[in-house]
Amino acid sequence: MELFSLPRIGIVVPPENPTAEPEFNRLLDGRLNVFTSRFPVTPDMGLREMLETYNRVLPETLGAFGRMRLDAAVVACSASHYLLAPEGDRALCEELSARAGHPVQSSTQATLAACEALGVTRLTLVSPYQPWLTETSRDFWERAGLRVDAVVRVPAARDADGGEVHDPYRVTAEAIRDRLRGRRLADGSAVLFTGTGMGTLTVLGELAEQDASRVLLSSNLASAWWARRLAGDRSEAAHPLVRRLDARAR
């Protein structure tokens, strides 16, 4: 297919997120063109205030695409949408879709759509967030009707006093491996790596080789899968993790 005739997906990401675009492009494997709008920089704000600000300015941030024709858009920031709870998240996406004239999906709603398509009812969360935000995410999924079997917290580092430092953008594949190594995951529980800023493709690929039957998801994987299905792309020339979800959905 000619490059500029490919479907167009817009994504909205936090300004410091280094992960979303590379993972989207890898997962979509050149089958969709990806364009980005970034939330404004919010100096001196605490985490909760920053996330609330993202929700407030989201219509304007989506509007930064101007008159570019998009086939769909994804809000690639799970944390801000956890604050809305499932009902508020869904309502906001519906409002934004009506305003934009094309589907707008949050990464959280894309994940819920993937869970429905894949028959997932139970989750093991792998979270890089601060404890309060991890609990907010657990509450989101449980209020959406999913059972959370366990939560695996993945700090980015430890400070001089031995305390955990939580920063999704600094979490390494080795840090994720360390937290999962030797841990027995509940049978039938899908693993969800939450957050669009934590790089997960390497570890997801390793887990896929170790356990062929377990459903593996991340915020970016679920969002890219949603966008690809919306665009009607069923090509076999897809990323292995995408093909794996396709096979499970069939």
Quick overview:
The chain has 250 residues and is α/β, with parallel strands linked by helices. The protein contains ten helices and ten strands. α1 crosses α9 and α5 (107-118) crosses α9 (219-230).
Indicate the structural class: alpha/beta
Oligomeric grouping of the chains: single chain
Cα-to-Cα separation, first versus last residue? 25 Å
Run of helices and strands:
EHEHEHHEHEHEEEHEHEHH
**Can you summarize the main beta sheet?**
4 strands, parallel
Shape: globular
Total beta strand runs? 10
Largest sheet: spatial strand order: 2-1-3-4
InterPro entries: Iso_Racemase_Enz_sf, MaiA/AMDase
Protein name: Arylmalonate decarboxylase
Please tell me about this protein's structure.
The chain has 250 residues and is α/β, with parallel strands linked by helices. 45% of the residues lie in helices and 17% in strands. The chain contains ten helices and ten strands. It has helices spanning 20-28, 47-63, 78-82, 85-100, 107-118, 131-143, 173-180, 201-210, 219-230, 240-249; strands at 8-13, 33-38, 72-75, 104-106, 122-127, 147-153, 157-158, 164-165, 190-193, 216-218. The strands form three sheets. The chain has a four-stranded parallel sheet, sandwiched between helices. Strand 5 (122-127), helix 6 and strand 6 form a beta-alpha-beta unit. Helix 1 packs across helix 9 (219-230) and helix 5 packs across helix 9. The longest helix is centred in the N-terminal third of the chain and has 17 residues, at 47-63. The mean pLDDT is 95. It comes from Streptomyces sanyensis. This is Arylmalonate decarboxylase. Pfam families: Amdase.
